[in-house]
Write a structure and sequence with these properties.
191 residues; alpha+beta; Jelly Rolls; four-stranded antiparallel sheet; 24% strand
């Protein structure tokens, strides 16, 4: 049994060990090297991913420039929800920023599990709701906060990003150029 995944799921829905084993039997584990892509723009996202070790970044490539959407560390779930639900090609690129281990479960497997046990369906619904809230919060952050406020909030709310992510990706994530981030960091000093 994968204790890390079991504990993560049980924060959302309470599963017995037997129910978890049933869920886990539908999963696969994959390893990615640093800079290896999990999904590329144009691929269809057919899996949901649980990061058991490492870090993923999703980004969009627009006119040759990368725009980071989010970072996912240990104990985080990720899927390109739009592609996953509609079957349309993804516009996202997902790469490992560190050596990363992921537990995957396919959409087809999730659908089977939803039919077998309402707890699995509840888990899927709650995860989709969390994804929606995360997207809404990110949109509001980019719309309503200055670059300095976005950086300060990132320091407060997501210290792993500051500790583990290169500065040029952080700049992209908060929607500014790396030079602007350098100026903000210099202005804030040891904040």
């Amino acid at each position: 049994m994968n204790t890390q995944l079991f504990q993560n799921i049980n924060k959302t829905v309470s599963l017995s060990k037997e129910e978890f084993e049933q869920f886990y039997s539908y999963t696969q584990t994959i390893k990615l090297k640093r800079k290896e892509f999990l999904l590329s723009e144009g691929d269809t996202c057919k899996h949901s991913y649980f990061v058991s070790k490492g870090c993923l970044r999703y980004f969009y490539s627009i006119e040759g420039n990368e725009h980071t959407g989010q970072f996912f560390f240990e104990n985080n779930w990720y899927t390109d929800l739009e592609s996953f639900l509609t079957g349309k090609p993804s516009r996202q690129n997902i790469e490992a920023l560190e050596p990363t281990q992921i537990i995957t479960i396919s959409k087809d497997s999730l659908e089977k599990l939803y039919m077998l046990n309402p707890k699995f369906e509840r888990f899927g619904r709650l995860m989709a709701e969390r994804a929606f809230i995360g997207i809404k919060q990110r949109t509001e952050m980019l719309t309503n906060q200055s670059a300095e406020e976005r950086y300060i909030n990132l320091i407060r709310e997501r210290p792993k990003v500051i500790e583990r992510i290169p500065q040029h990706y952080i700049a992209s994530y908060i929607g500014i150029q790396p030079q602007s981030l350098s100026r903000i960091r210099k202005k804030l000093g040891n904040y």
